[in-house]
Amino acid sequence: MPSEILPVLLVEDNPEHVAFLRQLLATPELSHFHLETVASLAAALDWLKTGSIELILLDLTLPDSDGIETFIRVFEAAPQTALVVLSGINDVQLAIETVQLGAQDYLVKGRVDNHTLLRAMHYAIERKRVQSELQRAHDALEDRVRERTAALIQTNAKLQAEIAERRKAEDTALESNRQLSAALSQLQATQQEIIQRERMHALGRMANGIAHDFNNALAPILGFSELLLLKPDSLTDPKKVRNYVEMIHNAAKDSAKVVSRLREFYRYRDESEVFTPVVINDVVLQAISLTQPRWKDQALAAGVNIDIRTDMGDVPTVPGNEAELRELLVDLIFNSIDAIPKRGTITIRTEVQGRWLVLTVADDGIGMSEEIKARCLEPFFSTKEDQGTGLGLGAVYGIARRHGGEIDIQSEQGRGTTVAVSLPLEKSAKTAEPAKPAPAAGVSLRILVVEDEPLVREVLGVYLAEDNHNVTTAENGREGLEKFRAGEFDLVMTDRSMPEMNGDALAAEIKKLRPAQPVLLLTGFGDIMSGAGEKPAGVDLVVSKPFTLTTLRSAIAKVTAK
Questions:
Q1: What is the pTM of this model?
Q2: Backbone phi, psi, residue 37, to 5°
Q3: CATH number for the segment(s) 215-424
Q4: Which of 252, 312, 243 shows the shortest CA–CA distance to 282?
């Protein structure tokens, strides 16, 4: 149990809700939360001027304020404090707006249980702490870039002065002056390249810690799953159900690669990376289906009419990474959707031009000015203010470059935008090795699963039961250690971020008790840990979330091999 007392300010005018929260936080295991309550916005603002608060639980409907104005006033008064909206208003748009403005979570009264509320409080405090650390790291990196830039400018100024003195002293040495001028131009180009490399390096490091907005990736998952839930009759159509499930599965796999795509934003393709033949026309149809919730359902709800048309030629396959090319096309479609304010058409065309397969996405939206067009490929540049990350066209450019391709953008303000991505039809690439068959289930094992997320714990249980393993579960590190001491296990699977005791500490304790015990770490930070070469002591293998049954089987076989 944490020894630090965490002060919590509850802004709530309903005595029953206040009494409920007090009763919830009065248990001994939650004594590290100290609850202060106020019943009005004015009282809350006065308290925030004097008190040190770790977390604010805010009701939006108060005697002296109502709705989003309540949130804005409180957030402006304590921008560095974690804030969870605990409201009786079940308004999706209001929830999205508060989270976009800075809330860590939005919970609806009567629709959350005690566990969800407590976990939201813990996660809100932790997310706010991580955001503050990221901001400090970002500021430090920017300071380094400015210092390096200033040093380069000073060096350049000194070189300029030396060149000017030499020119003045050697007016008759025209050839020498010409050589010095050429050297100066080369130096300036090198300096600009170094400055840009340093800035991109700083942004790349920062990108690894960004809590990236997954709304675009989640749109098809939510959209198609909602269709299945709202229309039970469709479940009688196996072909339609399979198509929806495949779309959901593809979207989930693509979203799992976002973190690694950010980390490798401008990397060049390794020579060892093998591309496989990709049917671009199939990728186009998949991307249109994946984005349908945005360009049809959500657009119509917002009063926007968008028509998507295709003009696909008889084109051959191209060597590439199908998931990346699908992500490229999805980003282009989303950009076109955002550029259409009321009514418009998006046209997707495929054709062969010489040695290139050209994929074109054109819209008749608002277009771009010359200034915006000149900067639209810069990473983190966005005209959507807080509604976008600025990764769209920059990611498209990065994917095209990794495929040896080119990108051409034609746009005029008020006349729409056309983006043409040219992919080479022929390129020197290694022959792809035949795909290895998925590993079969091994012998039955006694496995201890330690995971605080109920849904992840449930998925693991189903996966392992599918392979006839004997599974014991624990909800946190301390419970897991107790069950490990009381039993015999062939394998321990543990999450990393857990209350009571994290996965690193649990693995270390297990190795002290039984040094030969195989321990598998399942974590959402797996890609970042792999990139940094990090593996905690006591852990035999790190597996990144989300995982598949095939991934799990391979990991179990590897870590339990004698």
A1: 0.40
A2: -130, 145
A3: 3.30.565.10
A4: 312
